[in-house]
Design brief:
Blueprint: H1 8-14, H2 16-19, H3 21-25, H4 46-58, H5 69-83, H6 90-102, H7 107-110, H8 124-129
């Protein structure tokens, strides 16, 4: 069984592209996040909007983008159905688990999420020490 594909950002930080530039070239056209996830779709019911908000709130900061709207919508609809107290099927439970996994919201899948890290704190001295914005420190 082949190894899981590592996220591009993780490879950049580890220096893997410096060691093997062809590896970076193969990911050149990889899609990039295209903005924040935005408000819930108007077609959701009130209960589904509550689930949408809960999913967004519980997701890792900076992970969900506009490209994830359909997955979050499906998860919100499924979660609302499960919580409605009606009879649910094993398929619905499995679908919910699969959707949460694809969003990195299960313990096992959380380790596969590559969330952007917060930028380092800045100070007024940074501009004096580094006026061109590059990190030229010798250490």
């Amino acid at each position: 069984m082949p190894a899981h594909r590592k996220p591009t950002e993780k490879l950049k930080r580890s220096g893997a592209f410096k060691k093997n530039p062809k590896r970076a070239a193969s990911r050149k056209s990889e899609p990039r996040p295209n903005g924040p996830i935005g408000p819930p779709p108007l077609s959701l019911t009130d209960a589904q909007v509550v689930c949408w908000s809960e999913i967004i709130e519980n997701a890792h900061t900076g992970v969900l983008t506009r490209a994830d709207r359909h997955v979050v919508e499906l998860a919100a609809r499924t979660m609302a159905t499960i919580r409605a107290g009606r009879k649910i099927t094993a398929f619905q439970l499995q679908q919910m688990r699969s959707l949460l996994a694809s969003l990195g919201m299960t313990p096992a899948d959380r380790s596969r999420v590559n969330a952007p890290s917060a930028p380092p704190p800045t100070s007024p001295w940074d501009k004096i020490d580094n006026p061109d914005g590059t990190d030229a420190r010798p250490f």
